[in-house]
Write the structure tokens for this entry.
Amino acid sequence: MDPDALVAFLAVLVRSGAVLLPATLGAIVTEKSGATNLGVEGVMVFGAMVGYAVAFQSGDPVWGLAASALVGGALCLTHAVPLVKVRVTQEQQFVLGLILVFLGDALSRLYGRPYVNQRAAAIDERLVVPLLGGIPYLGEALFQQRSFIYLCYLLAVVTWLVLYKTRLGLHLRAVGEDPAAADSMGISVDRYRFGAIVVGGMLMGLAGGVLSLSVIGAWTEGLTGGRGWIALGLVTFANWHPLWAIAGTLLFGGFEAAQFRLPAPFPGAQYLLGVFPYLAPIITLPLIASRLNLRQSGAPAGLGLPFHREQRG
Amino acid sequence: MRNEATPLIPHSSPLIPHGLVWFGVLVGALVVFGAFVVSLGQDPLAAMLAIAGGAFGTAQGLNRTVARATPLLLLSAGLLVAFRARFWNIGLNGAMFMGAVTASGIGLYHPDGPGWLILPLMLVGAVLVGALWALVPGVLRVAFGAPEIIVSLMLNYVAARITDFLSISYWKDPGGRGFPGTALLAQDFWLPRLGETNVHLGLLFGSLAMLGVAVLLGRTVWGLEISFVGQSLGTARHLGVNVSRTILMVAAISGGLAGLAGASEVAGLNHRLESGITQDLGYTAILVASLGLLRPAGAALCSFLVAGLLVGGDQLQIRFGLPSALSGVMLWALLYGLINAQALSRGQGGRGKGSSVEHPLPLSPFPLPPPRSGHGP
């Protein structure tokens, strides 16, 4: 493979991986608080549509990205209320997450029609990082991306810092791990879970905005094409750790880049190559799951369980 | 309806929401739906009438509704079994794809074979492959404790890509120009239809499957064992139930029925393999089963209602220029209202004494097992 093709491959890899990262982080934040949200795909697709529409109307992709994060959070408000206030059970959480996918998809189709296949001038600009961008080959692949791509990787580091290096993060993890103990320490389980679901939703919506504004540069119905589900699979793949999520998304970005940037050995090969991102969690899950029993995993022990203060043992 | 589980397990709380609750949920959903129609600048009442009329009002609409309900019956019947054991198989879309692939593969490679042999082979093959497909998350769960919800979900996309590869590339109809599908199957391999309608033999399969599931869950020892596994893994083991075997069995049943749904779409309706042939009905079936309160009668009824909603949604597009996705909003509003109403009426919410109810009964009619620690989706 000649170096130029390799550079192009790496650039696509970094870009495709970056889209998955905020969505994965959103799911990690949500699940670390002990709540589940299977609706990533729906939140992401609605964020993608709104982000694109706002950028189209305002002429500024930054407004678009902000809007996609906002609507992501707003959409997840509808998820947070039954989970935190009504205290639905684990399986009700699953179903609520699934119907959130339906809602997000339907909303994006309802309000996105005027923007389908409209080419906007206001997509995210390429940002060449000073100095680093000048490195031959490597700089071209990594540091000449559109600006939101860097933001995605930055968010992973920020999420890691907040979750593992701050009091806020400690409390959040305590709420997910052992809500009763957290409650007796005076931490408001409800408030943390509510906040985590909404902030998680903002990250998922933002991932959609990055997809439509920085990677695809257009809006079509069903734009996310299952990326939200992959993000959900990546949470377990990354063992609920924001930095491992970077490694996971890069691997997945590689599969996606390989689909389109590598020469196809036979016709239709891209469809079969497209299978690998989905196979990876299946292959790694048994490994992680067997570690789950040893309690070495990052999975919160209270995941999916409603917290009833009155029943605190 | 309430005895359909088994008298051995006492029901401690009302399982079916009060009629008023249903009414409230329905009104709430209609209000939400109406608000969206208004926001798109159309008359909400006319839109609702168009959906109902488009789904059930005309012969053609009814025809389409029944055809759409057929795979939903098969899929939701399988889900009832899996969910009763609390095996969260959401990979029915994938199993349905694989069933469709198997059926069309057998048909395409034996174009001159006798119909009486090939057609049953197509159906049986689809059931087997669908069951095997669903056994993957089953085996991984039993052997490693891998969460089936993620494994089955990911396999949906694997199956969709395999279908794409075959229908768009490998088995593509050379005479089909740009159409993403295979050539039509030989006419001998088509399921018989009722007169000039789209209603085919698959409807009988679906009805029998739902009936069989009702008997299995309500009247047999296996059904009881499935219920025990769903209730509590520990208790089930204590009672001598082979938990692993039961989980594998419910996985295979749900996958097999989904495979049959795929085959019946190929042999009964489309007569070829197409990209996206499942129309995401594997996901819709989860909503159908939940809306039907995980009961055979409820799921059967909801199969037709939801099918009608989907078919009627197309009328919005034709008559008002509104996106057919509006029916998705309606479906969301219905389930969202129902789940919240169920949870609230069982006293799960709030801060009062009512929330200390020992049975936070969810969609499943059985009390929750103790949480498996660290089991994440």
Observations:
- The CA atoms of residues 64 and 370 of chain B lie 44 Å apart.
- Residues 115-144 of chain B form the longest helix (30 residues).
- DSSP finds 13 helices and no strands in chain B.
